[in-house]
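Box 3.1 A note on notation
Throughout this textbook, protein chains are presented in two layers. The first layer is the amino acid sequence; the second is a token string describing backbone geometry. Keep the layers aligned when reading.
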Amino acid sequence: MAEASQPRRGRVVPQVEDALRAMFGEGRWRPGERLPSEVALAAELRVGRSSVREAVRLLAHDGLLDVRHGSGTYAAEEPRDAREARDVRQLLRRARLLEVYEVRRALEVEAARLAARRVRPEDLTRLTGDLKRRQKAAGAGPAAFVDADLAFHRTVVELSGNAVLLGLFTAALPVLREELVEMVVHETGLPDLTCAHTALLDALADGDPDAAIAATVKNLESVITLIAEEEQ
């Protein structure tokens, strides 16, 4: 096997992830075999441990790795449905961010419409808690804020009652999280969308599908416009 090459300048985590996938493709680790430590992999790939850790997290989410706390990281057995889900996630990671966000808009608009028709009082209590955690996380750092924001949106999709919508949104989450954290860190022109989130919660509480759709579009459209301008 050829020596691992040093990742190029740019986003390091996707390059580390690709390098580890290539190692799997070469048959470097058999199912159930333990991988080298983060320190060893970081030294081999000539990157920081944090980049290896994040790439391992993404691969574990895709079902390629089995992270056993206190024991190590192992090559996982991958069932057919996990391979199919991984193919969707790989497609999303290779897509332009604008394309991913356009898909997100389509998913969440339909999810909001369905959720407005199906939401129950106990669901509204859960969503209210999600929104409060999002607001509280605003000063807790980019990663914490993005996680809280996506948790709110995932709950809305879950309340749609549509398992396919939820599966597609869940498949997109690792890509969205990575890109959104980077955006929050580096982009100074991001709009404050607190009001749009509150409007969505109010629309769901009122059982108003049209208002839920409008709030979802308002929430996502400004970010899509910003991404489109940057990609021009």
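The chain has a mean pLDDT of 83. Residues 12-78 form a domain with the Arc Repressor Mutant, subunit A fold (CATH 1.10.10.10).
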